[in-house]
Amino acid sequence: MVIRNKLDRMRQCFSNAFWWTIIFGLITIFIALWAKKSGNPYIWSIGNFLSGIGNDVFLIGTNIIILIWAWRQRTGSIIKLTLGIDLLVGILVQGIKSMKIYPWYLRPNGGEGGFPSGHATHAFAMAFLLAMFFPRFSWLWFTAAAAISWSRVETDWHSGIQVAAGVMLGVFIAWGMISAWLKYFENTNADPTVESKNVQVSKVITN
Fold first, then answer.
1. DSSP at 37
2. pTM for the structure as a whole
3. Which of 133, 134, 144, 156 is the most exposed place for a label (fewest CB within 10 A)?
4. Cα separation of 88 and 51, whole Å?
């Protein structure tokens, strides 16, 4: 009964995270596709910061948060899930970029490898994962992901189509990986908050 209650609670957190992702994803896609670049040097500077240092701080920082938290909880499955999402994002993004899908692979600034936006993919995948385990701060995770995605259009590194594709790919990757992670524990009736039969740890879901 205890395990079933924990699984039910995680399914609810997953559902909430999914809807946060859909809402912010659609908003971000709308902005990327229809909002015009500002042409304002100050706004461009903000976009340039978010596109570079801001993106690095968000991705590295949130990975560290999840990994340290999971390590302290002794939940190795969450560490594997996080690193698995990171790895799959890299493989799929670079794999699609290498296909050079015409005409979308060309960047607005003239470079190649623009489709899809790796920044948007990784940001939204991580926001989904963070909203699953740290739901209180869902607004923060998705605001950061949306801002990073917007910055790629503002700074001419990506077109709206490229960012939209990145958002959808990131959502798909996180949804698939987390769904598989949950399904494993549901099918085995195992407790994901227990590292082994003899090691009891704290709750996975943070209120």
1. P
2. 0.88
3. 156
4. 21
Residues 6+ apart with CB under 8 A from 48: 151, 155
Domain ranges in the chain are 2-35+54-200
Cβ atoms of 114 and 13 closer than 8 Å: no
Q: Compute, in degrees rounded to 10, the torsion defined by CA atoms 58, 63, 66, 71.
A: -150
Q: Classify residue 7 by burial, with Cβ atoms within 10 Å: 0-12, 13-18, 19+.
A: middle
CB 9 within 8 A of CB 124: no
- Give the up-direction half-sphere exposure of residue 116: CA atoms within 13 A in the CB hemisphere: 27
Dist CA 153 CA 133 (whole Å): 29
